[in-house]
Design goal:
Elements (H helix, E strand, L loop, with lengths): L18 H14 L9 H10 L6 H10 L9 H18 L4 E5 L6 H4 L7 E6 L1 H14 L6 E6 L6 H7 L9 E4 L8 H14 L5 E7 L9 H9 L11 H7 L2 E7 L17 E11 L8 E3 L1
Parallel strand pairs: 1-2, 1-4, 2-3, 4-5
Antiparallel strand pairs: 5-7, 6-7, 7-8
Bound molecules: S-adenosylmethionine (SAM).
């Protein structure tokens, strides 16, 4: 995929579900500028600072101001979620895992802000419009990834493993797989298919990091947030409360936390919406020495 330098006036800002990535970037910017920030995100700062007054951003801008207003609707959820994954990615890098694949990278600034080893490879899969947009804005913002960053344009409901392989993904290497802010935009069947494909592609020693919505978000408690998502042209299509069992059924042993679990909150408190799960999982392996039915954690 070639990089497409653009001037600000030429930027095509992705529509539909792509707009949800702008909203998340804005949430990360709000954290980034706090004196006690739990992370700083130059990409989110650039996106928000530069595009806030762009005409196509007007709706997002107004929505974020509402969400972050005097009585914030989502206190600290996106901060806690971001740090939950940051800390686990950094631990894996420290343990020698040097390949990361983000499924639906959106405007995630991690490859540009985390202290990755320069030889680590970071693949970010997203829809073609989003990949082009991110390449353009990182170019315009003058941001350089700390490691070898590779956007991969693919639809995650299609044959993305072939595109990832063509981009240089090494299936023999232990890999961090990050799926944040995506499952709710897939149907249950698409989510199942994605997990099956990831498990097949995950070498021993890999780590899976995922977020999913709690089932209540598809009912009345989630209505306000759902309406905001739909006003951006996107739609929540799934949510579930059986994450540990779901992941086990797909060959992963998971540590699962509710988004508002104080154990992962780093002193911040999370509001009731959006109610979500955060999970970190390692592959299950069949222990052949103990017979075909035995399973143990890799
Ligand atoms: C809420 S954003 C999350 C982005 C990023 N993971 C983060 O947390 O900042 C959702 C992202 O999912 C991407 N997406 C949605 N459906 C997709 C699909 N079928 N294939 C690839 N990307 C998809 C959108 O383009 C968007 O960038």
């Amino acid at each position: 995929m070639t990089s497409t330098p653009a001037s600000l006036a030429d930027l095509y800002i992705p529509e539909g579900v792509g707009r949800t990535a702008l909203f998340i970037a804005w949430q990360r910017h709000a954290e980034s500028i706090r004196p006690d920030a739990l992370f700083r995100d130059p990409l989110a700062d650039w996106v928000t600072g530069t595009l806030a007054e762009h005409p196509v951003m007007a709706h997002c801008t107004q929505m974020v101001r509402e969400v972050l207003g005097e009585k914030p609707r989502y206190p600290d959820y996106f901060t806690v979620r971001t740090r939950f994954f940051d800390d686990r990615i950094m631990a894996a890098l420290h343990d020698g895992v040097h390949q990361i694949v983000t499924l639906a990278g959106g405007l995630d600034g991690r490859p540009f802000r985390l202290a990755c080893p320069p030889d680590a490879r970071w693949f970010e899969i997203d829809l073609p419009d989003m990949c082009r947009f991110k390449q353009s804005i990182t170019h315009l913002a003058g941001l350089r990834a700390a490691c070898r960053w590779q956007p991969v344009a693919a639809d995650l409901t299609g044959d993305w493993p072939a595109t990832l392989a063509a981009a240089g993904f090494d299936p023999a290497l232990p890999t961090v797989w990050l799926i944040e802010g995506l499952f709710m935009y897939l149907t249950d069947a698409q989510g199942d298919a994605l997990l099956t494909t990831v498990r097949r592609a995950a070498a021993p020693g890999s780590l899976l990091l995922i977020e999913h919505l709690q089932a209540s978000m598809l009912g009345e408690p989630g209505r306000w947030a759902r309406e905001r998502v739909e006003s951006q042209g996107a739609r929540w299509l799934s949510a579930r409360d059986d994450l540990e069992r779901w992941l086990a059924g797909h060959g992963w042993v998971a540590e699962v936390h509710a988004g508002d679990d104080p154990a992962i909150g780093l002193g911040r408190s999370v509001g009731p919406v959006p109610a979500a799960w955060l999970a970190a999982a390692t592959p299950v392996r069949v222990d052949v020495s103990s017979g075909p039915a035995a399973r143990s954690v890799r």
